[in-house]
Amino acid sequence: MRLSVIIVNYNVRHFLEQALLSVRRAMRGISGEVWVVDNNSVDDSVRMVQDKFPEVLLIANKTNPGFAIANNQAIRESHGEYVLLLNPDTLVEEDTFLKCLLFMDAHPEAGALGVKLIDGSGKFLPESRRGFPSPWVAFCKTFGLSSLFPRSRLFNQYYMGYLDEDEIHPVDVLVGAFMFIRRAALDKAGLLDETFFMYGEDIDLSYRIVQAGYQNYYFPDTKIIHYKGESTKKGSLNYVRTFYQAMIIFTRKHFTGRRAGMFVLMLQAAIWLRAGITLLRNYWNKLRLPLSDAVVIYAGLVFLKDFWASYYYKEPDWFKTNVLWFNFPLYILIWLGTVWLNGGYDQRYDLRRLVRGLGIGTLILAAVYGFLDLDYRPSRALVLMGAVWAVLSTIGLRAAAHFIEFRNFRIGRNRVKNLVIVGSQQESERVMLLLNHAGVAKNFIGTVTPLVGISMDDGSNASATSTKQSDKSASSTSGLGSVNQLDEIVRIYRVDELIFCSKDILAQDILTWMTRLGPAISYKIVPEESLSIIGSSSKNEPGELYTIDIQYNIAQPGQRRNKRVLDLLICLGLLLSSPLWLIFSRRRWMFMKNIWSVFSGKMTWAGYAKSENNTALPTIKSGVFSPLDTLKGLKINANTTDRLNFLFAKDWNVWRDFEIVFAQLFGK
Known about the structure:
The protein is globular. α1 (13-26) runs parallel beside α2 (45-52). The protein contains 23 helices and 18 strands. The chain starts with a strand and ends with a helix. The chain folds into 4 domains: 3-134 and 158-231, Spore Coat Polysaccharide Biosynthesis Protein SpsA, Chain A (Alpha-Beta Complex); 286-406, no CATH class; 418-547, Rossmann fold (3-Layer(aba) Sandwich), CATH 3.40.50; 553-666, no CATH class. It is of the alpha/beta class and 668 residues long.
């Protein structure tokens, strides 16, 4: 057996499906096997593999033991002369495996190779080849010198930016997203070190392969897409901690003495530094718009105060200084709080939510104003003028931001993207149906004709027939033109997004066009017979997904926030009305002992009923009550319980929680 392909999956079912379809094509004509090790995914990945890929050898773990352990599970069971460790969020060309086999056969000194990686926007990923993380190399990466000097041999040894990305080179480290390893080298170097949970195990294995007397190679004669950020999210504190802890494990394993101690100390300092930067960046991304709103509103209120004092009261110092440190901050807090509750900061250019939030905030402020002491009620006119200013200034702020970002003032009226589908008429119609079902608005320009008559039985020869048949296929349907005219079509029709139908166009042609057209266009791929359309606009962002899968209301960020706010309001209401429900409620002890648990965020008032199948639903806190509690006296089986939980998650709204809690408070 020539090749064993091993994919470790964790909750990326749609990307795994696409990866396996591309692997199936690339394996044609090669004696081999494909393994999928699932680390206890809750997104139905296991069933998808069983139903759609019966030829795949599947290991379904009941826990998540980590990347290294999962790969080793399959490596021990595999039989290939070569072993490929492949990420699930990848797409390989039809001849990728064949080219790798030919190169490895011709270079017996090669222990492992990696290929050219591009992200979902067609940009080259520098981690396709890396240097060993010596103290100097790690220092340059940690403190950003490698980013400042990407072509420098001195400062960017980590990503080896001084090497030509289109030439074959011996390299130190290969990325775990694609490691094509000679079995003999793996036997001599050993399996992946299971001390590493995630990150670092590829660096460690690359290092040991070189120590075993072999050479690692960067092999750009074939390329793959790697949708970075899918299996793990890289903008989180957890990523920073896990990555640098992996580097510490590597250092303690392969360095000794004072050098190791200094290196570990530097890496520990890097953890705190990068964690602090990440934390500040995350907070800044969330708070910069509310803080900007607060500043412009406050500045306007100060101006209105001075204006109204001089114009109406004829006395510049009419208002007391407490309006500056009490009234204005209170007004802003209420206005921005209601904007936040209305989702005005979830979608920053949604003016409807912004104005609605400010309107509700003004009504609340009017009610609160009447309860304030006379010394803290400066002028109702100031509140009304301030509300008008808040609306105008925040809209103006968003208009300016929109112009800076998009170079137009069509705020709230985002232009629908021009879409072209590259595929047969039949697949194009299927894609449009998927987009319609998913509720995605697109300006469909037309279809670009694929190449007809391509045989997928031999991926290595498929692209050779492409040029010969393009003209013939262009006239066979009433599309925009043939795929060979794609660059002209993109320019003429100002195309924003391309969707490639993988049933009709080779992966190697898709990747060629992505790198040729560049990152200014958004690219997506619809796998054959799949209900999902997959893509990514940046290596730093998670992949984008159009799918007709069930959407759960309770999984939406705005709804999760509403649920938490409702929990807090119910706690407050229960405390204020405690004399009433302590007398009349039959379940007063249940409420009394759980108020603090809900208030502290350990529980929620209404959650799922107990079931073994809840892992397939969006995760929420354990509930004090559940939908089953409203059905007392009825015999409910397991299927009914699962169905009630499913409906609770799919159709959740604040009234459903309130209904459940109220029924338990005063029901029989």
